[in-house]
Amino acid sequence: MLYRLLRPLLFRLEAERAHRWALAAFDAAHALRLSGIVAPRLPRAPVSVMGLTFPNAVGLAAGLDKNGEHVDALATLGFGFIEVGTVTPRPQSGNPRPRLFRIPPAQALVNRMGFNNLGIDRLVYNVGRAHYRGILGINVGKNFDTPMERAASDYLACMRKAYALASYLTINISSPNTRNLRLLQETDELDRLLAVLKAEQHALSERHGRYVPLAVKIAPDLSDAQVQSIARLLIEHGVDGVIATNTTVSRVGVDGLPGGEESGGLSGGPLRERSTSIVRGLYATLGERIPIIGVGGILQAEDAVEKIAAGARLVQLYTGLVYAGPRLAADCVRALAGV
User: Fold this and answer.
1) Where does 2-336 sit in CATH, by number?
2) Is 175 one of the catalytic residues?
3) pTM of the prediction?
């Protein structure tokens, strides 16, 4: 109810500024110990995935808290897990503003943020100071100016620094806002990358005495044949999970709407069906061998149920929180628990 009153005010602000203000408000409420008073009471609904036990199947997608600065406050909203990032080895400012656009008639966002973040060292510092002890995913990427032939070195650098603090690591090869990044989804490129990353995962597990699962985040703009090819490579290399999907470069559902013509990745309502289709296609090849985390277009609890029915074991939220508010997480948890 409170968010319904605040949303018109937030929507008067430029989207990225509203994003910062909302996070600041969460932090302030947490600091004043108000968030615990209004924290949702949720049913117990644990799920075992990737060798981890999640309190519930509903997580926060990467992108909302890029630098791990707001983990404690966000944890009060009922999420079973939180994913921070995408983070790169070196800080980078991202693309010029404005770079985030709301499309309310479609309940959608377009972003061309460009992996703006303060770098892996700052994220590690922030996460190390947090009190949160739940399941934390750390999403890693490459710097925009790292040549594609050296992309693996950026992922390795982030893995090495994040490993000790992460519950799982996500390899982001699917953002449309870093030039040529999606080429890493091509069969030969992905085969080489996964071989390097899995070898490093093994070395890090030996060094740290614990195994941190590795997930790969893929795009929705893939053909059925590409999805099957990626799924087979994930099996071959023993990847622990796959996140489907990132944002789309398609403009189906926002054609002719203000903001729909902006370049960048489209998320929200128009992505739901395509994202769910990718989940379904992955599951047809993976079955239960590799768990799927479904993300894209979850605007109401029924959308989360749809993702699980298509084959996902977990779901993640982002754009839906902008339109439905923080209560969406709890709504999804209750729906998946059958309450």
Assistant:
1) 3.20.20.70
2) yes
3) 0.96
